[in-house]
């Protein structure tokens, strides 16, 4: 993650200006207050020029500004704070484009819904926190391309309104306590990736994920059921499919492997039938890793006694 941090850091490092304008400096001091005036931020004081790097405390904080002196990038990494609610003063940084929070287990409680006011946001990356509660609505964030809230304690449903974000390339909500069903069309761009692994999601995967062209899907370690065979097909754009550790039940016998698929993991499910010819004979395939283990597939020790190599397995 720190790789991404510094990559973003470079790309949004904009021109040096005299000071954070429009009161953004005062907002940063309020944020410091909401964080309980931590020792690490002792140099954050009235009159400090936050936009020329003086507010950056390596490796804990990074602030980037627009050419007009507004805060456009706010990052907290491995930040030592006692237990505090998410500092909602952040919602007053109305020119914010990147919000980066990694490894800040002091952040508790829900992500405030006022985040939805930060319409210039391009990237939200919140990783390894103690945030809990439900996800707020992000429907105003039309410029959002990257949304990650992972390895935290977010619970409840995935808001269906997430599917209205027109520019979303990556939606990563892995390793939370999300439950309920997966809304349709959360991502729809050809280069998009969807990571919902390690939650408590249930129900069937909406069929539309076989109709949109996306690059990666990871729904492993949930409680999903039913068919997911619609993800497969020679002309599908997937390079990564992970369905591992669910209760999917479908016939694998006649699926076609997407031509650019490199990683396939369907282990620990109720997937039946035989290993498809398209896998057995995939000569010019790009596959690097295939994991079919712990499924009742014919020819494996997990196969039901009635399994034959020609007929689909008994209906579930
Ligand atoms: C930022 O500007 C202040 C004066 O406004 C100066 O004292 C300080 O050294 C500068 N800091 C950096 C990191 O350039
Ligand atoms: C969204 O992005 C477009 C293109 O980069 C830009 O012109 C527009 O101003 C942005 N809108 C907001 C609200 O930031
Ligand atoms: C999700 O979890 C909450 C709290 O544990 C529970 O009340 C709710 O019924 C669950 N919803 C579904 C659809 O499982
Ligand atoms: C798929 O997900 C499982 C469980 O989350 C993980 O253990 C496995 O490494 C993943 N497979 C691949 C190919 O990434
Ligand atoms: C597979 O990758 C090649 C080369 O990047 C690309 O031209 C082709 O369109 C891809 N095929 C699919 C089905 O995405």
Automatic annotation (TrEMBL):
Superkingdom as given in the UniProt entry: Eukaryota
Subcellular locations according to the entry: Cell envelope
Main location: other
Residue span(s) of domain Leucine-rich repeat-containing N-terminal plant-type: 23-52
Pfam family, one: LRRNT_2
Keywords: Glycoprotein, Leucine-rich repeat, Repeat, Signal
Stored InterPro entries: Leu-rich_rpt, LRR_dom_sf, LRR_N_plant-typ, PGIP
Cleavable signal peptide: 1-19
Similarity annotation: Belongs to the polygalacturonase-inhibiting protein family.
Protein name: Leucine-rich repeat-containing N-terminal plant-type domain-containing protein
Species in which this protein is naturally found: Rhynchospora tenuis
């Amino acid at each position: 993650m720190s790789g991404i941090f510094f990559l973003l850091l470079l790309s949004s490092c904009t021109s040096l200006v005299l000071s954070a304008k429009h009161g953004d400096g005062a907002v940063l001091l309020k944020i410091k207050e909401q964080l309980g005036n931590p020792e690490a931020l002792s140099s954050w004081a009235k009159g400090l020029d936050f936009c020329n790097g003086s507010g950056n405390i390596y490796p804990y904080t990074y602030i980037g500004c627009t050419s007009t002196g507004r805060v456009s990038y706010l990052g907290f990494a491995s930040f030592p704070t006692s237990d505090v609610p998410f500092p909602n003063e952040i919602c007053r940084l109305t020119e914010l484009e990147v919000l980066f929070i990694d490894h800040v287990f002091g952040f508790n409680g829900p992500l405030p819904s006022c985040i939805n006011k930060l319409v210039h946001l391009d990237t939200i990356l919140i990783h390894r926190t103690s945030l809990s509660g439900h996800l707020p609505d992000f429907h105003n964030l039309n410029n959002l391309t990257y949304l990650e809230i992972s390895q935290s304690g977010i619970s409840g449903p995935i808001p269906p309104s997430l599917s209205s974000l027109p520019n979303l390339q990556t939606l990563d909500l892995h390793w939370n306590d999300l439950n309920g069903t997966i809304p349709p069309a959360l991502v729809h761009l050809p280069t998009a990736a969807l990571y919902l692994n390690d939650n408590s999601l249930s129900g069937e995967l909406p069929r539309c994920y076989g109709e949109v062209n996306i690059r990666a899907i990871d729904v492993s370690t949930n409680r999903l059921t039913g068919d997911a065979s619609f993800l497969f097909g020679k002309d599908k754009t997937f390079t990564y499919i992970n369905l591992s550790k669910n209760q999917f039940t479908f016939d694998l016998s006649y699926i076609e492997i997407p031509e650019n698929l490199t990683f396939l993991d369907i282990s620990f499910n109720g997937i039946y039938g035989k290993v498809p010819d398209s896998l057995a004979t995939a000569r010019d395939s790009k596959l690097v890793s295939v994991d079919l283990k712990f499924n009742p597939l014919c020819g494996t020790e997990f196969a039901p006694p009635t399994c034959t190599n020609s007929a689909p397995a008994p209906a579930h």
